Amino acid sequence: MVKYKTREEVEIIKESAQILGKAHGEVAKLIKPGVTTLELDRVAEEFIKDHGGSPSFKNFNGFPSSLCISLNENVVHGFPSDYELREGDIISVDCGVFYKSFHSDSAYTYPVGKVTAEVKQLLQVTKESLHKGIEKAVFGNRIGDVAYAIQNHVESFGFGIVRELVGHGLGRDLHESPEVPNYGKRGKGPVMKEGLVIAIEPMINMGTRKVVQEADGWTIRTADRQPSAHFEHTVAVFKEGTEVLTTHKFIEENIKF
Ligand code: MG
Ligand code: MG
């Protein structure tokens, strides 16, 4: 069952998303060789709590951290450690904020220092595919229209689309209906109605789309150990237009690539 949101509820999610966006911005300031991923987690958690929110992921199904940190061949659901970032790494930072009973969810993948042209293209194309998906997330369209837009863009570059993990509705719960896959057919799937709030989150691999789960029980990585990128926004669909509730603005003020 899809739980459609009122304008008032969406306004609260937007407030949650502002805290989230700024927490991402604080993390962005620290991304450089030598910083540990635990330090990123600490800074994000502190910022979220200082602003009246709580980190959505911490203790979610037993997840240990406020951030999902997925490096290089890790796709999603990795967690922070004492690993120090190195020049040439890519790092996906996924974060959620719970504020006034509503969640927001967004992710960004950063290059650490200089990365290869191929990796840069992977990041660029994944981010573009998120925006292609958002363009199709409009009232009266179907989820398949979003999925197809992402797939069509990504596959034209020969990259692999992870199928085992998908975007999702969200609101009072971090994961709600419907599922929002990153591959699919135009005109298929649920119709997007007034008040639908979804997280769109392409997870794109440089090589095979196949993934495996690490022995830690959380981290998902590419089967061929080639790099993977992940970008995510939370959006709300209304007749008058779709609103992107989360923001990467505070990240992009702090990085250049
Ligand atoms: Mg997320
Ligand atoms: Mg999500």
Shape: globular
**Share of helix among residues?**
25-40%
Number of helices: 5
Would you tell me which CATH topology applies? Answer: Creatine Amidinohydrolase
User: Structural class of the helix and strand makeup?
Assistant: alpha+beta
CATH superfamily: Creatinase/methionine aminopeptidase superfamily
Strand content: 25-35%
CATH architecture: Alpha-Beta Complex
Q: Biggest β-sheet, characterized? A: 5 strands, antiparallel
- Order of SSEs: HHEEEEEHHEEEEEEEEEEH
Strand order of the largest sheet: 8-7-9-14-15
Enumerate the distinct ligands.
Answer: magnesium ion
Number of domains: 1
Q: How far apart are the termini?
A: 40 Å
- What is the β-strand count? 15
Task: Summarize the model shown.
The chain contains five helices and 15 strands.
Structure characterization notes:
The chain has a single domain, classed as Alpha-Beta Complex (Creatine Amidinohydrolase), CATH 3.90.230. The chain has helices at 7-30, 37-50, 117-136, 143-155, 249-252; strands at residues 54-55, 67-71, 74-76, 90-99, 102-111, 160-161, 167-169, 176-180, 196-200, 203-205, 211-213, 220-222, 228-230, 233-238, 241-244. A hairpin with a 6-residue loop joins strand 7 and strand 8. By secondary structure, the protein is an alpha+beta fold. The termini are far apart. Helix 3 (117-136) packs antiparallel against helix 4. The chain is built from five helices and 15 strands. The chain has a five-stranded antiparallel beta sheet with strand order 8-7-9-14-15. Strands 1, 2, 4 and 5 form a four-stranded antiparallel beta sheet that branches. Bound molecules: magnesium ion (MG) (2 copies). Residues 105, 168, 199, 201, 232 line the site of one magnesium ion.
